Amino acid sequence: MVFRLVLSSLLFACIFACQDKKTTSQENVTSSEVTVKKKIPTTKVSRITHENAKDFLIQYGKENSERKVLIETDFGNIEIELYEEAPLHRANFIHIVKRGFLNTTSFYRVAKGFVIQGGNSDGWDMSRLKRQIGDFQVPAEFIPDLKHQYGAVGMARLWKNNPDKKSTPWEFYIVVDPKGSHHLDNEHTIIGRVTKGMDVAEKINLVEVDQSEWPINDVYMKASVID
Fold first, then answer.
1. Mean pLDDT score of the chain, rounded to an integer?
2. Burial call 85-104: b when 16+ CB within 10 Å, e when fewer
3. Which ranges constitute the DSSP H helices of the chain?
């Protein structure tokens, strides 16, 4: 409980510290990740780094062509279709699902009428696995014809000191605003859409949260590749 209070405080501080001119939780989807750069081809690297991230994801994407992911929760299941037009993000999402990373996380942020955000938790297993996978970001892949409509799935990012708008490899969100969240267009990479289970996303968006928008009762998930 003490650990969660500390982590919630840190996340809350990050959310507002990273907003620049943004002022409310209805405006940003933030992350505390750092930047990426260079390369080393092959998916047999022991750890993804700033240097090898892009080439790793290109090669991983060639070897793993799946595009559909199932997210299971106590509220029901959510099916996500990933876009081929964002190949680095598709490869990254499939990778973290196959590594079991999302199984150590929860929907840790519920912004009412805006988004539900997953890919983090207060568990040591998550922290351990994140360190094993690596320290990197995913280069932005904006798709002109795709907007933050209801049901869009995107990746969070650091807002400050991130001019290239690179994404966190871990934290994703689902838009639950029926009108969409179009202020996020060309600010965050859209990686896919919910094909089934928006009623589940809406139920999660109704749960009671604390002052940092962390659910009072954890909403854990289990993720698997289905196609």
1. 87
2. bbbbbbbbbbbbbbeebbbb
3. 2-17, 53-63, 87-98, 124-133, 198-204
pLDDT digits (tens, 9 = 90+) for 59-107: 999 999 999 999 999 999 999 999 999 999 999 999 999 999 999 999 9
Hey, what long-range contacts does 12-19 have (CB within 8 A, 24 or more apart)? Answer: 12/211, 12/212, 12/213, 15/212, 15/213, 17/160, 18/158, 18/159, 18/160, 19/159
Distance of CA 151 to CAs 106, 115, 196, 198, Å?
A: 18, 9, 9, 7
Q: State both tokens at 16.
A: 């507002």
Pairing of strands 76-82, 190-196: antiparallel
pLDDT, position 10: 40
Distance CA 52, CA 108 (A): 29
Tokens, residue 100:
């079991």
CA distances from 123 to 15, 29, 88, 218 (A): 20, 21, 27, 11
Residue from 101, 132, 141, 134 nearest 33 by CA: 134
- Percent of the chain past pLDDT 70, that is, above it, reads 81
